Structures are given as structure tokens and as C-alpha cells.
Amino acid sequence: MSRMISSGSSLNRRSLLLGTAGLVTAASAFRFPTPAIAQGAPLKVGFMLPYSGTFAKLGKFIDDGFRLYVEQQGGALGGRRIEFVQVDDESKPETATDNMNRLVGREKVDVVVGTVHSGVAMAMVKVARDTNTMLVIPNAGVNEATGPMCAPNIFRTSFSNWQVCEPMGKVMFDAGHRKVATITWRYAAGQQMVGAFGEGFKKVGGTVIEDLALPFPEVEFQALITRIATLKPDAVFAFFAGGGAVKFVKDYAAAGLNKAIPLYGAGFLTDGTIPAQGESANGLRTTLHYADDLDNPANRKFLADFKAKSGADGDIYAVQGYDAGALLHEGLKAVKGDWSARNDVVRSMRAARIDSPRGPLSFNAAGNPIQNIYLREVRNGRNELVSIAGQAVNDPARGCRVS
Ligand code: BEZ
Fold first, then answer.
1. Domain boundary among 257, 288, 319
2. 241 within ligand 1 shell (Cβ under 6 A)
3. What DSSP designation does 312 have?
4. Is residue 30 part of a domain?
5. CA 326 – CA 323 distance, rounded (Å)
6. pTM, rounded to two decimals
7. Is the CB of 268 under 6 A from ligand 1?
8. CATH number of residue 273's parent domain
9. Same domain for 191 and 96
């Protein structure tokens, strides 16, 4: 069963919060709210995702991936049937707290799965901490979620912004580039991703000559592309995703810069976007925790089943949704679907070892994935594996005090 609730809410935030302000200690974090549903009733999963706007396709693929995993298990995880409600967060941080409170307070969901946008995720993390609601983040990379804002009830099946971009510094230096410009949207994900790339690049001797940015989700790139042509860096590192990534890659090629100044990026630049980017994406090299042609049985099965279900080729967003289902399954299996044993659910989820389409997936104490970061190149209309840029990369979880 699935239901879409409209976003926006007049709920009084204070009436919903349970008053655990400040750092969630290990002891308090393991006290969960009393279950709102009787044992044996479906477990209620709230999807808080963008179903409209520049990240709409990303949200849909996460949703489809999660549902595919549940369907593969016969509609139940650990013997517990799953019920869904959805809210469209529109990638808007300003309505994120109300949307999250609506799911937690009015809808009384047991688990929230969301979201894509780092700024929206920050608001969700705060509510999840205050209300001790289980939150599984299936994309947003905001470092704080598994850094200073970490908590035992917060998990991520995607990446941290640091994790996917730091390894690119060495990759680009090894390719002979010494002076690089970066370009992104001016918001948490963009700034953290170019920052992490810069950290990796400077560590091996490279120089970032200019950081260029425009407000999210604007796509008027022309002035910045002209600036790149003037700067003449050895190469460019970019973070854009969804509709913005499609337009940026096309505009960069239309300006003829792809022939003169190699473009690299976080893998979101070309994941799920190649059909719309066409030839302008050919040859682009990016780092990500997935490549389309990873040759393992889990990936082959995932891609075939995802195509059969949705008619589309799976991408990283679908994988992250699929693995969010797999992670919840690990927790529910351990307690035979008994959500009242949530401390055990959490422990099993933290200890999970998942045979993911992306390769081996486990979790650090902060709840962030430990995973390979792959260098990929766009060839034959997909992101093909070039090499492993970082084996079992673990985010440093700076500032996390949950052990
Ligand atoms: C983010 O805001 O964290 C994000 C959005 C799209 C792709 C990757 C990261």
C-alpha cells in the first residue's frame, strides 16, 4: 500500500519534538518512541524525496529501487509487511522541517527514508535526532549527517560528500593536471564536494586556481563557462546532478571547452543523465561508488530486475534506494520483524554487510557506508569502470561522538 501526502504543514513543530536537544548520547539514543502500531501491523515507511524539480528523477529512482528490494522479498522485510507514504520535499530546505514533522507526528511513520538534497537532509537529521525517529538517508551526502550530527538512529546508504570526491584529487594529479578550477551550485553538497576534491588535490601537490559557483538550482552557466575559458585551467572539476548536470555538460560541450579543457566531476555529473546529455558526455571521467558495468552477480540481478520493473536502466540513485531496503531488511530479519526490539534492529543495521550492486557495503560507527570509490568514464552510453580510485573508503566522520 502506498499513499502520497501533500507537502507543507501548519503543524506546530514544538508540539512534535520530544525534547532531547543537544548531542544524542549513546544511552538516550537507544530509547525509541513507543511503537504507534500494533505488532504484526505493517511497518510504516515514509519516503521524503523530491518528486518534482531538478532532482525529481533521482527521487523516483530511489523510491523505485527501495520498492524493488521489498518486492524481491515478497512484500515483507524480516516477515514484516511494509506500507509506504510519500511526501514531495521539492528539494526545498525551507519546508523540510514541516514535511519531516508531518511524517513523524501526523503520519506516525516508523522509519523515514530520505532525501536527495543535502540542505533538506540537514533539517531531517535535526528532527530525527529530536524525536529519535529512525532515518535512512538514500542519497544526500551532507558530511554533518554522519559527522557532528551523527546518532545511532541515523543511517546512510549513499556516501558522504567528502567520500566520493577526495579520491579524485589524486586521479586528476596523476593524469598530469596541476592547476584546476572547480564549479558547482552554492549549497552544502556543492561546497563540501569541491572542498573534498581540493583537499585531495592539494595533498598531492595540485593547486585550485578558482572556485566558481552559482545558486541552487540555477542553470544559467554561460558567464561561468566564459570565466573558465579566460582562466585556462589544466582541467575542471564539477558537481552538478539531475537536470542541472544535463544542462551543464551540454553547455560546456557547446562552448567547445570539452576539446580544450578536460572536464571531470563527482559521478552525479553523468549518472542517470547520459541519455539526455548524448555525445556531450562522451569521455567524461568521474568518481563514484558505482559503475554501470560492475561485473558482480548482485549488480547483474539488480539491473535486470530494475529494468523489468520500471523499464529504465538502473543508476546510483536506484542502487541507493535498493540498498536502503536491504539495510532495513538486515535489521528486521534479526528480530523477526518485531519493531519493538529496535535496539537490536539498530545494532544489526550497524553491523550489516550487504552484497550490494556497488560491491561490498558495510557501515562505520557513524552510520556512513564503507565502500569502494570507482573511477569511471562515459563510453557506449554508460559509466564504465576504469579503475578503483579508493578501496573500501571510510569517511573520517569528523566530529561524530557516537561510538
Ligand atoms: C546532495 O545535495 O547531497 C546531492 C544531490 C544530488 C546528488 C548528490 C548529492
1. 288
2. yes
3. S
4. no
5. 5
6. 0.92
7. yes
8. 3.40.50.2300
9. no
Which protein residue has the closest C-alpha to ligand 1 atom 9? Answer: 140
How many distinct structural domains can be found in the chain? 2
**Best residue among 143, 157, 159, 268 to mutate for probing ligand 1, ranked by most atoms within 8 Å of CB:** 268
**Is residue 25's pLDDT more than 50?**
no
**What are 52-88's pLDDT values in tens digits?**
999 999 999 999 999 999 999 999 999 999 999 999 9
Instruction: Phi first, then psi: give them for residue 289, nearest 5 degrees.
Output: -90, 25
Q: Give 269's contacts (C-beta < 8 A, 6+ positions apart).
A: 238, 239, 240, 241, 245, 248, 249, 263, 284, 286
Q: Which of 269, 288, 307 is the last residue of a domain?
A: 288
Range of the structural domain that residue 109 is part of: 43-159+295-370
Instruction: Report how far residue 73's alpha carbon sits from residue 333's, in angstroms, rounded to the nearest whole number.
Output: 11
Helix (H, G, I), strand (E, B) or coil at 219: coil
Probe target for ligand 1 pocket from 58, 118, 193, with the most ligand atoms within 8 Å of CB: 118
- Inside any domain, residue 32: no
User: Is the per-residue pLDDT at 334 higher than 60?
Assistant: yes
C-alpha cell at position 275: 541519455
Has residue 223 been placed in a domain? Answer: yes
| Residue 168 and residue 246 in one domain | yes
